[in-house]
Records
---
Amino acid sequence: MKLIKRLLYKGGLKLKLISFVFISIILAISIQNMFAIPFIESYIERKAFEVSTTTIERISDFSSFALLERTYENRLSLNDAIEKIRDSRIDGLLGISIYQRQKNGSTSDFEYIAGFGDIVRKLPIEPQLIQRLNQATSEDVIFDSYRIQTPTQTIDTYRFIRPIIYKYKNKNILLGFSILYYDKKAISNVIDTVLDYLYTITTIILLLSTLFVYFIGVRLTRPLLEITEAATEIANGNFNVYLDIKTNDEVENLACHFNEMVDELKQKDKMQKFVSDSTMNMIKSNGERHLKLGGEYRVLCFLFCDIRNFTSLSEKISPQEVIDIVNFYLDIQARVIKSNGGEIDKFIGDEIMASFSGDDGSYRAIKSAIEIQKEIALENAKREEAHETICNVGIGINRGEVIVGNVGYNDHMDFTAIGLAVNITSRLCSSAKAKEIIIDKNTFDFSGCRYNVKPYTPLTLKGISYKVAAYSIVVENGEENDD
């Protein structure tokens, strides 16, 4: 351990960077091999089982007719199916055999009738398998590991067997069976290929990374040594230091800030000759002056617009789809509000808070609300044709006196509006159904608008001590109810 520390110290930053990159890559590859290779092997094996099971089920379906009716046409169809499977050249598939059951007195034999694959053609069927087939009550595929021994080679395989059964008068009659052999080596070959590529790429990355880090280390350490020497001079009280480093990166930026710091230290060193220590301590303790918290009273008309049923919808789609849909509808609302002279105060999840100033603020807020509903209705028609997710919004509008100003604390402030009018608008928006606009009676009367509105029973709103008289403007199919 001491030797390693000594080498790292003498090697400097270059050796540390190279060691870090080398160890990181080796560690990443090792962890990847630990988790990825078993996963890949399991995935390939699962796919091989799926292909083999599907193949033997398909060939067994053709075989059942040939074994049951035993006509020339059925036998021809079976041979055609076998040829198609052989021509598909499924990787790892050694062959398929179909056997027909033959009664021989009180015993049964199985006779090979069709198949392909020279290695597996007419392989002996062990008595245990015959006994298992005779006891079969369903056509479920069974599989096991099987070793094929030939004079020249040994092949480890997965063997898939499917009994071919005919049901007659609630009795299961075994007509025969089909058997498929899959070479296990086909799976290991894929893993070996992946590992070869992985090791080759790792070696190349290690070599290139080592060279890259070495040259970066040389480029980085030289100016850092200059900065270190300059810092030592300043610590010794020598402020006549200037760094001329041109690296076009963060090190050059550091050198520039270092030079600025030196200039500030020079100025402070000069100022201390004319300012007492007590004055300097007072300046340091007071710090900089910040913007003051506070605000003023103003009369504004507020519009809250919220996407309906979006919380439940977001549970059924991906996060990226959620963001795309929210941004799509918020963009429509924001454009309409801006075009009517409104100001976006903030986005609260999938809800917009906007304000309109001036005597015509209420009129422009209502106009914005109607245009939002109309434009969303038009866009929803397009999205419905394209089979895309559709959302609607509910809108609340209210006018009143609020406090506008900086709210927060000294290090972080937000310019916003607070007051009863804001709370009422938020509650009206919460009460609005999809495609609906709810506005309190006083605001609607003040606006001078002449829309055909539907009176609401005075609303009891959360946090509001009195009932609020309100109207509803329902926009249907992109058309507002106007006189």
---
Amino acid sequence: MKVLLIGDGAREHALAEALGNSARGYRVYALSSYVNPGIKEVVDGTGGKYYVGNILSRDEMRRVISEVDPDFGVIGPEDPLFAGIANVFREEGIPVVGPDREVALIERSKVWMRQLMWKYEIPGRLRFRAFSSAEEAVRFILEFGGSIAVKPSEQVGGKGVKVVADLQAYLSGEKRDALSRSAGRIAELVKDEVKLIIEEKVDGPEYTLHILTDGHTYLPLPLAQDYKHAYEDGIGPETGGMGSISGPGSLLPFIIEEEYGRSVEIIRLTIEAIRRETGRDYVGVLAGQMMLTGLWGPTIIEYYSRFGDPEASAIIPRIEGDFGEVLELTATGHLSRARIGVVEKPSVVRAVAPLGYPLDRRMASGHRVWLDLPRMRELGCRVYFGSIALEGMQLITRGSRALELVVIDEFGEAVRKLDKCFSLISSDTRLIYRHDIGSAIETQIEKAEIVRYTYKARERAGLLGVSADWSPNGGLW
């Protein structure tokens, strides 16, 4: 059988590896915007063909589909989904892992997502307001007395989110001024008529739950936690993700089985609401970027219409069973036949990025990278290639996270192995790498216990999900 993979990052390398290792004997074909060396290794090893082109072009997709004639497709990134590439596959009669453009709106539009959750009374929802101009948002910010998060109304590659906790009264004026200025900058990122969304701020440990669905059957995958900030101890600008952890088992050290079950139910209800709202089945991955909060317990911060990156690198290697076949069953509507297990030991992922990322992609581009891949594999470290191109015989950075290093082992041992593997990488520029990922587990456990006590008390009092704020003018939300 032939499978056509769309995308070019570390997430797609992990998907390609799963397809290439399948007992089904898939021939893997790929369409990427550059030659990813990891994906190319799988394509060459299975007798497929590598295409380089515009992964957002519907016409180019039809041309490649016509030439390959795949049995099914797998779409990795969100932008092709927003561009309707999954629609093209289905119009050509090819089943595909990836939702149609109309239902990928659950990720592209934060406003649509929040409206859907409130319309269908899905647990874990937050109060919000949407604004068509920065001026309207600023008036709200100046009137509101509580803590808020200001976000672009549509997906803009993880840019622009500003969160302010108004805890110190003597700083509240300065905080509002800063947030008001940020609202204007965020609005400039958005093309839609609705520019900004302001949500009530919540706090707690974050985690991500991915569910595979063929529109009718739901297959929950192990939890993961993403580390967004560029530098040690969670400081610096937000990135696409500098690392991730998953496990042990299907959970995380700070999430209990009951919370996992509630999280699964939230995403299941969301998929059903999407079907009722649009009349379309959701086929592919729906991932809830969640937070354990005192307001609800499991709470939705946002949704992904695809695998997260680097969460995919933490999750996919821990799947016991034929994950390539699971992807086929998802695409073809037979997910009820899927059977998987989960490696009990956790995984730790650390991304390696060139200096300049995430603020200056030009500075982070065009650098050579060298690594001792055989020695890294001997040490038990998987390497997924991300924003790095094979040009001739050289590995050249393209401005984002170049590599993702993965170790499956107990947290302490995984951290030790990762640091050894990082020492086997060199470049003609400085490399950014967070040594703290996977090493602050106890802090997360303590934070979760405090939050758990709060939401359980609210639940016993019948106040789960109930919140209110005082304002001199009233009626803010």
---
Amino acid sequence: MHNDRLSLDVIARHVDAKAGDYCALSDRIWAVPELAFEEYRAVVEQIAMLEREGFRITPKVGGMATAFVAEWGSGGPVVGILGEFDALPDLAQVSGLAEHKPTVTGAPGHGCGHNLLGAGSALAAVALKDALEAEGIAGTVRYYGCPAEESGSGKTFMARAGLFDDLAAAFCWHPSVVNEVQTTSSLACIQAYFRFRGRAAHAAAAPHVGRSALDAVELMNVGVNYMREHMPSDARVHYAITNTGGDAPNVVQAYAESLYLVRSPHLPDAERLFERVKKIAEGAALMTETSVSVQITDATSNVVPNKALQEAMYENMRRLGPPAFDESDVAFAEKLQKSAMTEEEILASVKPHDLSLKTKVLHDGVLAMPAREEVMMGTTDVGDVSWIVPTVQCHTACFAIGTPFHTWQLVTQGNLPAAHKAMAATAADVLRNPDLVARAKVELRERTGGRAYRCPIPDDVTPDDLRAKAA
């Protein structure tokens, strides 16, 4: 049975009524960027606003100090709206400049727009709550404060704790350069430190008694690079040398470490590839007579798309239309494109969507849903939620076309205006249309083959472990 009191127009009015408050919330979070598992001020800001709106708060869920659940209502379908708010290291940037100028050198910055993501998701939850309350309609709305999406997989720990198990559907969005419903899957991933320990020695007087941990790190890298020819073309292996053992060349380094990120379109394939990387590390340790330990720091499942929810969200986005940009928005986007973006970056930005957008500075339309499902060559812990409950995401144009993510060019635009309403409207569709929920759940069972969710992070790994650095 449909409840027409939860119309798109009703939801839109409730979003508009409080949009200013949540834009201000986004700006405050942008101004105090915090890294994974350290988002204390962002959490305080969000909880304060949601408590004023009448939400019940459950703090520190899933074993994480900066994870929380805000809930309103009772009975009826339970819908979940996912928010993120973590920043990235070394991306502090003065707002509104078309040149690189850190506010504080080496400080973090919101290089993926998560200040917008969390505030926008909270607004969607509040608007939906206001509509239900005004019309006297039963239902439960949950906002999930999800930390550590960039590094740490906060939603994966929340999934392991069973926090999404009773949802009818989950909704998320992400700031982007285009307006679209996300129809792609994503790459599953496993990330881990490889820590080598050897024996220090004077590199000139007694090199023969030393065992170089840095040599082991380098040999592991060589081995992984040789492996690249013999792994699937749609898999990825990235690395960073995070500790070289010091700056003195006349010392045989007794400790060194590297951080590897292994990705593949399906979690079992990523796990098999990760086992191969571990064998290469063991071989490097054997060659150098060092020892190696492995600490998983991040792991996520691939996203399971849900066409039933995608079609509902697309219809809402199509009816709402794109965000309204004014002349100053366009002027700054043009300036940023000319001074800080290459033609290659602009092409890379639109190639997955529509190459005709390369002549635009801001996306002022809504992309049609593609005929084929593709794999997004990126990773998100939303994937773990999507294995448990039907999940849908949209992208909203907040940045100039060509903006590379995880860069200062994105940070400088991170507290400029943008808005969207499709998420709250589609969550309302779930509450007013039981048939949509039933179809979405059937589709999830078909896509997963009925396989139950299996958390990719080992049971003995905790969020505290992920914060641990080299000893």
---
Amino acid sequence: MRVIICGAGQVGFGIAERLAAEQNDVSVIDTAPELIRSVRDTLDVRGFVGHGAHPDVLATAGAQQADMIIAVTLYDEVNMVACQVAHSLFDVPTKIARIRSQSYLQTHYMDLFSRDHLPIDVIISPEVEVGEMVLRRIALPGAADVVRFADGNVAMVAIECLEECPVINTPLAQLSELFPDLPSTVVGVSRNGRLFIPHSADQLIAGDMAYVVTTKEQVRRTLGLFGHEETEATRIVIAGGGNIGLYVANALERKQSRTKVKIIESTRERAVAAADELRRTVVLHGSALDQKLLLEADIQDADLMVTLTNDDQVNILSSVMAKRLGCKSNLVLINNPTYHEFAKTLGIDAHVNPRAVTISKVLQHVRRGRIRAVHNIQRGAAEVIEAEALETSPLVGPLLRDIEFPDGMRIGAVYRDGVVIKPSGSLRIKPKDRVVIFAMENAVRHVEQMFRVSLEFF
């Protein structure tokens, strides 16, 4: 696939890295020569210094032959114009744009992005995507990661196995026998930096990160089975009153719950705007690194500190300081992937990676076949994929036990006619079933092939 990426920042670089690793033909455009130099030196892609919305720059980058343009610069307007130019002058089939301003995304204005106006096929709003991820993590404090599939009816939960975890040192097949009514399947395990798909005879050990697919109704029970029975936070302090912090605070207010929220925002103008918009949330102006301000926010009595500023260092340091002052737990937004590896050693309980969220959204539209959703695991080491089975799919018809699956993939759940089915050897996949699959990096292409329309069908 020939792809043009406008914007070589952290998100653009991450997308280029992932697509180039899959042997796609990638061109990256950015106005900053140092970013393009880094892209050229690090990745197997072409880099062009220039304005991503300018026709001559797009032409030089190969827009005439491009299958897709992904506009992820810092500016909404540049992203929108780049898609318009790609459509009008070069007839690029698929156009993806990152739109950050919520003003453009209001439902009564969504016709703006139709083919007759601004022809953008896919809109990515990182603030909304990350905000929803934060809200899921707040609602399920025992989970290290939570992603929903099949219209929210299926969940993939990453769960850390602690020393007191009841299910460790027990063969996975035995767990199924002990809890026959629990529709949960362990599809992946990360152990000592190695990610693998477990067999039924394998056992979980302390320190493992287990990736479990289950139904939305059984997520809490599954977490409890793994020894995670943390209660949802009712006193939350948020550092950062920008788009994400405001989105999270608004959503928590709409829930009409007994949760008490306080926001710390360093920019006075933004703090005033947040205070005007929010009704029950207390907004404090100042730095989240100011110990006196944290104490003024009653951090010592808080259940959770959520740090959502644009500065990784502020997010990390303020969350660590909050725990030292008595806050029970923290959830940290970290953009730089190099910080993820030692976040745990610093006293960070959980972190959110906005780049991974955006890349997952893009991959959903890069994948061939009837792919409905994709979630990136550990910087591309694996993916959780929701795909729709077609009549021509090799999965349709035979019993699952009779199908020779390629190494590196495991079915976690099947969604059929509003019902979630736990996979077993006696199950037959039917056309239009939505199948949630955990696939290692080397198996993703096999999954795509399984869910593509066969030429023989015609």
